[in-house]
Write a sequence for this structure.
């Protein structure tokens, strides 16, 4: 199984996470790349490190964005 190219870190009830999810889903579908979502409330380390930054987006394991996901920047990073 291939690792996801995009990882979204978020938490339930986060409206910015909902917005990020829509952008990521659209871009990933259009470009044919895989993505996954991780709930920071399930990991004490994630919660401590990312609580004030969510949603946080990683591309190929490298932090890409936080708070807002720019569709244009995400597309460029995936090229």
């Amino acid at each position: 199984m291939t690792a996801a190219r995009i990882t979204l870190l978020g938490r339930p009830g986060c409206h910015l996470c909902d917005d990020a999810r829509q952008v990521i889903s659209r871009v990933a579908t259009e470009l044919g790349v895989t993505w996954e979502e991780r709930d920071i409330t399930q990991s004490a380390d994630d919660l401590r490190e990312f609580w004030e930054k969510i949603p946080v987006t990683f591309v190929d394991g490298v932090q890409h964005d936080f708070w807002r996901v720019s569709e244009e920047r995400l597309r460029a990073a995936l090229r």
